[in-house]
């Protein structure tokens, strides 16, 4: 019987969990059924702007101007492309996890895009004290993109350490934790973060660090050959970098469809910052590595400007400010890939894709810079950091008080992300989930059907490297 088979496989191979080879189907189908049921209970189609029809036989025809939210459809698709294509190809950098990086990234997107809508309903209902269904519209899809990006950043930290079954658990826990933190930061600390410097990027990176500690994976457990890249995998990763770089202004500005003036400012500031980080990251890489470029820094640190400008991208500042912020972030991130990674590994923490250097540190740096900009602009209306839809200054909030709110938001985000990440790591150890054995860390082989020719090519490459 199925139950006997599961028990036999668990006794024979305990790392596979109680579910044995059925761990992913059991967990996956169960998760899908839960999402489907809760989707029916927790969501509804947004019908704003649709007039009441006198007769159910009459079809209402709305002019294009009535669907103002559709103006963000292009930006929504850009943000979705960043998640699916940008992160997907970026995570193809490891030669023994190229399929794993792209495929599991795709899997995370599919599950999180749906679950985020339910998570929004759960968190909103908790804080409002009454059940409120989530409206499904372009704005909610964009919001799901931002949340999914945080989960993908976390995946970068534990890249190759978690099984597909464990990934499902992460996808169900992290969006709820992120929406919880987001609500506290926006509605209680009155800190707006249009591009998600801390709400998306720093949260995802710190959650991943906590998750790593909860899982108990150590850098010394990873086979050295599994951490190698090659020419083809690095080329794929560079394609992901370019996709992310091109669409980042849309990612930061997509939700501001109600204020075209601010949306344009976000796009322009992000564009300037990410151009600057591209320059300084590559120059710094060349300086640090004896007149040569390091591909991991070219693939990642060049994007740091988009992360660091996230909180201040809606501010009304002179163009040199985002150029400076992006330039500093690019150099900081490039240096971090050589120094911070070593410090983390010496401390027993492994960050496979360097998400700490690309998202964590630049995210916190961007929030601190935003606070400095607030302090440097007293008596002005430049800052758009309150919780309301128009992104205007909160009533009675001074620049000094707002600086304190931003610092509080950083601390709050770091604390919630790390604690929930560590708890999620412990939860991923539940017996039903298969676990990745030490010799299979960052190795996609156990999860894919591979042609014999592919395996022979891999062996040939290993022999050449030896």
Strand content range: under 5%
Q: Please count the beta strands (DSSP E, at least 2 residues each).
A: 2
Helix content: 55-70%
Query: Looking at the structure, what is the overall shape?
Result: globular
Give the overall average pLDDT: 85
Total helices: the number is: 15
The structure class reads: mainly alpha
Protein architecture, described:
The protein has 466 residues and is mainly alpha-helical. 64% of the residues lie in helices and 1% in strands. It is built from 15 helices and two strands. Strands 1-2 form a two-stranded parallel ribbon. Helix 3 runs antiparallel to helix 8, helix 6 crosses helix 7 and helix 8 runs antiparallel to helix 9. The longest helix has 31 residues. The protein is globular, with a radius of gyration of 23 Å. The N terminus is likely disordered.
Q: Which helices and strands, and how do they pair?
A:
Layout: H1 2-12, H2 23-42, E1 43-45, H3 73-90, H4 98-128, E2 134-136, H5 138-157, H6 164-187, H7 197-215, H8 231-253, H9 260-288, H10 295-300, H11 304-308, H12 320-346, H13 355-375, H14 399-427, H15 452-465
Parallel strand pairs: 1-2
Task: Write a brief structural summary.
This protein is mainly α and 466 residues long. It contains 15 helices and 2 strands.
């Amino acid at each position: 019987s199925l139950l006997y088979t599961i028990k036999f496989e668990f006794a024979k191979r305990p790392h596979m969990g109680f579910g044995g080879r059925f761990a992913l189907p059991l967990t996956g189908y169960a998760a899908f059924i839960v999402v489907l049921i809760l989707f029916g209970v927790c969501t509804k189609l947004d019908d704003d702007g649709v007039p009441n029809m006198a007769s159910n036989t009459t079809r209402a025809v709305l002019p294009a101007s009535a669907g103002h939210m559709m103006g963000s459809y292009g930006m929504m698709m850009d943000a979705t492309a960043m998640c699916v294509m940008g992160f997907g190809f970026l995570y193809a950098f490891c030669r023994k996890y190229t399929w794993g990086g792209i495929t599991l990234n795709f899997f995370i997107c599919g599950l999180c895009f749906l679950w985020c809508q339910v998570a929004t309903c759960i968190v909103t209902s908790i804080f409002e004290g009454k059940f409120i269904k989530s409206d499904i519209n372009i704005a909610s899809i964009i919001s799901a993109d931002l949340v999914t990006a945080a989960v993908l950043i976390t995946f970068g930290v534990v890249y190759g350490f978690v099984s597909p079954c464990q990934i499902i658990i992460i996808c169900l826990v992290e969006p709820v934790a992120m929406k919880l933190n987001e609500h506290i930061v926006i509605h209680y600390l009155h800190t707006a973060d249009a591009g998600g410097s801390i709400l998306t990027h720093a949260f995802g990176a710190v959650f991943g660090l906590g998750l790593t500690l909860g899982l108990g994976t150590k850098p010394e457990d990873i086979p050295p050959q599994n951490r190698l890249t090659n020419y083809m995998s690095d080329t794929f990763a560079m394609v992901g970098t370019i996709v992310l770089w091109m669409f980042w202004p849309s990612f930061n500005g997509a939700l501001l469809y109600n204020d075209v003036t601010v949306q344009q400012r976000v796009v322009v500031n992000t564009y300037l910052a990410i151009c600057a980080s591209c320059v300084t990251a590559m120059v710094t890489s060349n300086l640090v590595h004896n007149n040569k470029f390091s591909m991991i820094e070219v693939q990642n640190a060049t994007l740091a400007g988009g992360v660091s400008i996230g909180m201040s991208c809606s501010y009304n500042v002179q163009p040199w400010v985002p150029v400076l912020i992006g330039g500093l972030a690019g150099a900081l991130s490039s240096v971090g890939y050589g120094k911070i990674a070593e410090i983390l590994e010496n401390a027993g923490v492994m960050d496979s894709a360097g998400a700490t250097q690309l998202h964590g540190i630049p995210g916190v740096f961007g929030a601190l810079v935003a606070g400095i900009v607030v302090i440097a602009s007293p008596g002005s209306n430049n800052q758009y950091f309150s919780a309301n839809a128009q992104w205007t200054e909160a009533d009675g909030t001074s620049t000094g008080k707002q600086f304190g709110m931003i610092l509080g938001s950083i601390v709050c985000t770091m604390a919630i992300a790390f604690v929930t990440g560590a708890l999620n790591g412990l939860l991923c150890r539940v017996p039903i989930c298969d676990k990745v054995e030490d010799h299979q860390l960052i190795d996609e082989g156990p999860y894919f059907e591979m042609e014999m020719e592919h395996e022979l090519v891999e062996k040939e490459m290993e022999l050449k490297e030896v």
